Amino acid sequence: MSFTIMARGISGGKGTGELLVSGEAISFLSGVDPETGIVIESGHPLEGKSIGGKVLAFPHGKGSTVGSYIIYALRRNGKAPSAIINIEAETIIAVGAIIADIPMVDKPEKPISGIPEGSVVTVNGDTGEIIVE
Length: 133
Prior knowledge:
The chain is α/β, with parallel strands linked by helices. The chain has helices at about 65-75, 90-100, and strands at about 5, 10, 15-20, 55-60, 85, 105, 120-125, 130. About 15% of the residues lie in helices and about 25% in strands. Strands 1-8-7-3-4-5-6-2 form an 8-stranded mixed β-sheet. The chain starts with a strand and ends with a strand.
C-alpha cells in the first residue's frame, strides 16, 4: 500500500531509495566521508552508516558552508543520497542538493519518523511529493 506525503520542493528531479532517518542534524563537513558516503561524526545516530543511494531524512544541516561542496563531492564519487528530506531546509544543504542535482524537499505535511526505516521512498523535488511504496 503506497501513500504520498506532500512537502515543499527545494531541488528538482526524482530520487528513489531506501529511507534512512536521523533525528539529529548532519554536518557534511567532517561528518560524512565524501569518498565513501559513510557518516563519520562521532556519536551521531547514523555513525558508520552509508548514505549513498538512500533517501536521507534529517531535520536540517549544521556546520560550515563547505558542507555544500562535500555534498557535491559525494555526487561526483557516486556516494550521494538519491534524495534529501529535511524538516526545515537551510542554505548549506539546499545549495549542496542543487549543485549536486539531488532531489530535495522540506516541510513534509506528516512526520517522516512514522515511516519505517528501510521503506522504499521516491522524492519528487519538482512537485514536492514523497511517495512511500
